[in-house]
Amino acid sequence: QVQLVESGGGLVQPGGSLRLSCAASGTVFSINAMGWYRQAPGKERELVAVITSGGSTKNADSVKGRFTISRDNARNTMYLQMNRLKPEDTAVYYCNADPRYYSISNYRGPGEYWGQGTQVTVSS
Fold it and tell me: Can you list the positions of beta strands (E) in the chain?
């Protein structure tokens, strides 16, 4: 089993930055892909970015050039650096872990493990 704990959300003005963290515990050796998803009120949960155990990444078109996903295997921690934030980025952001193997081009997540979510609000 895998447990995921998120931190780093908060209130930021448009154009600002936040860095989200996701700490994994339990059977972390079973994790292959990890990703960030987000969900705004009344909308479906959507993929933001994903990273494989080998470090390959893929971002949603809406965040390309602004968000960077990374992974520190020694700390069992994943990060999402969010720059030039927009009001439409406001959502609950969820950490996800997937034990299945993917090449980055074949990612079909989400996996079965979820964090509790952390609120990101972009507003003046």
Answer: 2-7, 10-12, 18-26, 33-39, 46-51, 57-59, 67-72, 77-82, 91-98, 113-114, 118-122
- Give the C-alpha separation, 84 to 14, whole Å: 7
Query: pLDDT averaged over the chain?
Result: 96
Q: How confident is the model at residue 36 (pLDDT cuts 50, 70, 90)?
A: very high
How far is Cα 51 from Cα 62, in angstroms, rounded to an integer? 17
Kindly report, residue by residue over 71-112, the tens digit of the pLDDT.
998 899 999 999 999 999 999 999 999 999 989 999 999 999
Residues in Cβ contact with 44 at an 8 Å cutoff, skipping those fewer than 6 apart: none
Nearest to 32 by CA among 51, 5, 19, 47: 51
Which phi and psi (to 5°) does residue 36 adopt? Answer: -110, 130
User: Scanning the structure block, which residue is given the tokens 């299945």?
Assistant: 100
Query: Which single residue is written with the structure tokens 């909308």?
Result: 43
